[in-house]
């Protein structure tokens, strides 16, 4: 059988930085060539970064993408890489009108670059329009099954959602007799998605009747984190190669593939797709593979989520031009976990903490904040808010919740003042449980440009803190989070002897109901039918529904759950529906 060595370049494109992205394509293509690759593939829309959102509607941006593609083909040839076929994703234009959209509308495209030219172009066929995706808003679908004939092998090409939907290019690849289905992806991370993705790729390989190679991007873009997890499976669904998660990687795979068939160019295939073959030449090579690359090990559940939070934080800070971050360090579990994430992402020397005690701050919390700084290496300063609090309360009479919230808002003001003065990006410490029920103070603990644990329920916050400490012990390092921070009852410390359970149900119960209501879209009656106390469910549902206005004003943060607040879950702020 013919043999083909492919390279999957699991890279981190930056949205809008077209020049940088093209330079990275050249750099990784050179590495692939040095590894003996005969075909190299990059992720979805690698030229522009992904997702580009409304940038797709700017004609200047689409033109810049298309022009860069042509230049990239020439640069690869100039760099001595012209004989290596390179498949890249980019932002293109349609050639024909489609359902009321004129010719020239944006398309999510990919192209084959070879010998200094763009040898073939095609557009994504299935456009996702659910969850975080709005591709019907931007793009016109493609209507071809592109097939490369290379070294006597037919390679069918597809883009991400093309294999998440039944039929389409998967079935068309079988009808065309393709020996390999190569898929370019920008598939965002969420918990346990690596297992879902593997099952999908195995299923589609069996349906296509051929080996399937899946290349995905890494890095992060605003709320989305990309975990890589590129892989190759054979026609029976057996894993041949698999890349590590959350890191750039060159995955080389030697594949024994069936010889090309005689399917007619232009043949009408499944779902109205027309076969469009591009012959790149090359002599069939009948050689035995040099050896199977051992699939990279998978991360455990907590390790996977934690790494996604680190990657999301690092990308947001670096890609937005910041070098350092600022955190209000209270001695509590949330700010401690955020500090650990930030120091792992950026290094302790680039993380600045401010302890802002009030008259209600316990000594053990102050000590825990200092111990956290010692263990992580972050810079810590202490600024008491007591004089400011006294000045406010002398000027106006505040009691109860107003008095409590004033303390939080003074801390938020201080953080933003230091940020403005010193140029640090402020990280907000709120978790998903608090955001869900509105247990946070607007313009106080919600202050910040990015919320690293915005999509992490409180019970998971504790598990992640415990996992991070255990991981440190396994490496012979000191755990970053003080044990007392994990062990003590959570408290905002805004009044004497306050604990969170004064205002909220126990977090185990709260998070269980939230998971059903938020992630599961279960109504009040359905949740009660599962055995939960009706009064508790009513209270939680009411809190969630009335806190929508607060969540709208919270900063972005990395999505790690199936349904995060923001891009995933979009409910009206003004809303009288209270049936659950």
How do you describe this structure in short?
By secondary structure, this protein is of the alpha/beta class. The chain is built from 18 helices and 19 strands. It is elongated and about 85 Å long.
Q: Which word captures the global form?
A: elongated
Oligomer: single chain
* Structural class category: alpha/beta
Strand content: 15-25%
Q: How can the largest sheet be summarized? A: 7 strands, mixed
What do you see in this structure?
- The protein is α/β, with parallel strands linked by helices and 580 residues long.
- It has 18 helices and 19 strands.
- The strands form four sheets. Strands 13-12-9-8-7-6-15 form a seven-stranded mixed β-sheet.
- The chain is elongated and about 85 Å long.
- The protein starts with a strand and ends in a 28-residue tail after the last helix.
- 49% of the residues are buried.
Keywords:
seven-stranded mixed sheet; alpha/beta; 18 helices; 580 residues; single chain; six-stranded mixed sheet
SSE blueprint and pairings:
Layout: E1 3-10, H1 18-34, E2 39-41, H2 59-78, E3 86-93, E4 106-114, E5 117-123, H3 135-138, E6 144-150, E7 153-159, H4 161-164, H5 168-176, E8 180-185, H6 193-208, E9 211-216, E10 218-221, E11 224-227, E12 231-233, E13 239-242, E14 249-256, E15 274-281, H7 301-319, E16 325-328, H8 333-346, E17 351-355, H9 363-376, E18 379-382, H10 386-395, H11 400-422, E19 425-426, H12 432-437, H13 458-474, H14 483-487, H15 507-519, H16 524-528, H17 534-546, H18 548-552
Parallel strand pairs: 1-2, 2-3, 6-15, 7-8, 8-9, 16-17, 16-19, 17-18
Antiparallel strand pairs: 1-14, 3-4, 4-5, 6-7, 9-12, 10-11, 12-13
Helix pairs in contact: 1-2, 5-6, 7-8, 7-13, 8-13
């Amino acid at each position: 059988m013919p043999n083909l060595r492919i390279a999957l370049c699991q890279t981190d494109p930056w949205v809008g930085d077209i020049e940088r992205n093209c330079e990275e394509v050249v750099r990784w293509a050179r590495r692939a060539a040095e590894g003996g690759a005969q075909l190299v593939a990059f992720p979805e829309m690698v030229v522009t970064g992904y997702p580009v959102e409304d940038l797709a509607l700017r004609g200047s941006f689409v033109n810049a993408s298309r022009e860069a593609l042509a230049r990239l083909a020439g640069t690869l040839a100039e760099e001595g890489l012209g004989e290596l076929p390179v498949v890249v994703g980019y932002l293109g234009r349609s050639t024909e009108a489609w359902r009321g959209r004129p010719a020239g509308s944006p398309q999510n495209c990919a192209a084959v670059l070879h010998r200094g030219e763009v040898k073939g172009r095609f557009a994504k066929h299935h456009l996702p329009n659910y969850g975080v995706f709005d591709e019907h808003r931007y793009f016109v679908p493609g209507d071809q099954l592109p097939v490369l004939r290379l070294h006597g092998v037919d390679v069918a090409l597809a883009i991400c959602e093309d294999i998440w939907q039944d039929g389409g290019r998967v079935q068309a690849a079988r009808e065309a007799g393709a020996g390999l289905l190569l898929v370019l992806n920008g598939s965002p991370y969420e918990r346990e998605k690596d297992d879902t993705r593997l099952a999908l790729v195995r299923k589609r390989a069996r349906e296509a009747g051929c080996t399937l190679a899946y290349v995905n991007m890494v890095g992060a873009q605003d709320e989305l984190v990309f975990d890589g997890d590129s892989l190759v499976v054979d026609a029976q669904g057996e894993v041949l190669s698999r890349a590590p998660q959350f890191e750039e990687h060159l995955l080389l795979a030697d594949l024994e593939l069936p010889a090309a068939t005689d399917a007619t160019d232009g043949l009408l295939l499944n779902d109205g797709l027309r076969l469009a073959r591009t012959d790149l030449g090359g002599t069939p090579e009948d050689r035995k593979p040099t050896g199977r690359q051992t699939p990279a090990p998978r991360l455990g559940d907590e390790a996977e989520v934690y790494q996604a939070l680190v990657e999301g934080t690092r990308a947001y800070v670096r890609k937005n031009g910041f070098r350092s971050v600022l955190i209000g360090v209270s001695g509590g579990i949330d700010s401690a976990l955020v500090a650990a994430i930030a120091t792992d992402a950026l290094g302790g020397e680039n993380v600045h903490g401010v302890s802002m005690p009030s008259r209600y701050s316990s000594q053990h919390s102050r000590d825990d904040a200092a111990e956290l700084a010692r263990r992580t290496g972050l810079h810590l300063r202490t600024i008491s808010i007591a004089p400011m609090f006294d000045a406010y309360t002398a000027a106006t009479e505040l009691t109860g919740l107003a008095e409590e919230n004033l303390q939080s808002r003074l801390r938020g003001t201080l953080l933003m003042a230091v940020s403005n003065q010193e140029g640090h990006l402020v990280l907000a410490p709120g978790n998903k449980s608090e955001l869900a029920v509105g247990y946070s103070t607007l313009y106080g603990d919600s202050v910040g440009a990015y919320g690293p644990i915005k999509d992490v329920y409180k019970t998971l916050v504790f598990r992640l803190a415990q996992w991070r400490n255990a991981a440190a012990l396994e490496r012979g390092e000191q755990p970053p989070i003080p044990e007392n921070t994990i062990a003590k009852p959570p408290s905002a410390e805004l009044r004497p002897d306050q604990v969170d359970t004064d205002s909220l149900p126990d977090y185990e119960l709260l998070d269980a109901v939230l998971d059903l209501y938020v992630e599961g879209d279960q109504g009040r009656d359905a949740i009660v039918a599962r055995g939960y106390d009706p009064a508790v469910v009513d209270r939680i549902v009411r809190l969630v529904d009335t806190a929508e206005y607060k969540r709208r004003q919270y900063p972005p943060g990395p999505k790690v759950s199936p349904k995060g607040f923001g891009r995933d879950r979009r409910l009206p702020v003004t809303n009288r529906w209270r049936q659950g």
